[in-house]
Every structure is written in structure tokens, then in C-alpha cells.
Design the sequence.
């Protein structure tokens, strides 16, 4: 019998891209990251373009809550500028629930 719970788990460092080597993965405060100075086409990032892109992104944040013994999944549609605040409120317990997933939606005209 296979372990279904862990079948779809992918370690960040296991993902491969043509410009990212596994040896480029670093760790800061317990979080793995890869620093990128250029996009996958070799073009340097432009601050204003990245900020405009981020401003257009929205996130579906899924939170599991249990009320009166019944489990429900709440889907919150959160703008990029409010994502940190939303996650902070969830972490601090300002509202209860367990984070299940954060999915990014990119508007079609930004893709």
C-alpha cells in the first residue's frame, strides 16, 4: 500500500528550471529560496514591471475550519497587497482555521 498522503508532495529544491540549479538553493530563517536576477529569457528584472505584475495578482486562500464538529473549507479571494495581512491574522488567531492552500491567479492580460 502506498503512502497516498505524501505522494503529491514536492520539495522546492526538487523542482528544476533551465536557469536554476539545485546547488543554487539557499536557506534563510529555515526557508529555502533561489535568488534570480534575470528571468528565464535572460532579461534583467525591472522593478516597476514586477510591482505592476504583483498588483494585478490575486490569491485564493483556502482555510479549513471546524464548527460544531463539522469541517468546512473557506475560500478567500485576497489581493496581493492584503495577502500578508490576511496570513498574519490567520497566524495570530484573530480568526480561527488552518491554512490549506494558497493559489495564485494571474489576470490574462498579465500572462
Sequence:
Amino acid at each position: 500500500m502506498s503512502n497516498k498522503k505524501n505522494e503529491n508532495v514536492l520539495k522546492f529544491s526538487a523542482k528544476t528550471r533551465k536557469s536554476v540549479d539545485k546547488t543554487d538553493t539557499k536557506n534563510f530563517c529555515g526557508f529555502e529560496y533561489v535568488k534570480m536576477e534575470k528571468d528565464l529569457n535572460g532579461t534583467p528584472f525591472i522593478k516597476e514591471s514586477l510591482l505592476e505584475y504583483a498588483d494585478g495578482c490575486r490569491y485564493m486562500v483556502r482555510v479549513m475550519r471546524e464548527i460544531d464538529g463539522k469541517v468546512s473549507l473557506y475560500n478567500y479571494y485576497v489581493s496581493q497587497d492584503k495577502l500578508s495581512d490576511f496570513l498574519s491574522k490567520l497566524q495570530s488567531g484573530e480568526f480561527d482555521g488552518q491554512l490549506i492552500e494558497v493559489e495564485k491567479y494571474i489576470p490574462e492580460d498579465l500572462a
Q: What stands out?
A: The longest helix spans residues 80-92. The chain is about 25% helix and 30% strand. Helices lie at 4-7, 47-56, 80-92.
